[in-house]
């Protein structure tokens, strides 16, 4: 689960369930200032009975209507089964994903 706030922690954090990391692309100084509020998160499409997750269930999704969570799973150019996301980071003007 990931807590988030859109006002640099000035408001009470809200919770995104079934996620492990989220990033707003426009937080990087190299993204254009007028960028819309796209964000990307590593999310899990299944969970075990005890609430834990497996690597094979992790995916990257993006959302343009944050926080309404109209999620789009990113296939990363390798098809619909782009699972096993290990790491995700915004580096300069690029999003870097490790599978």
From TrEMBL:
UniProt superkingdom: Eukaryota
Q: What is this protein called?
A: Uncharacterized protein
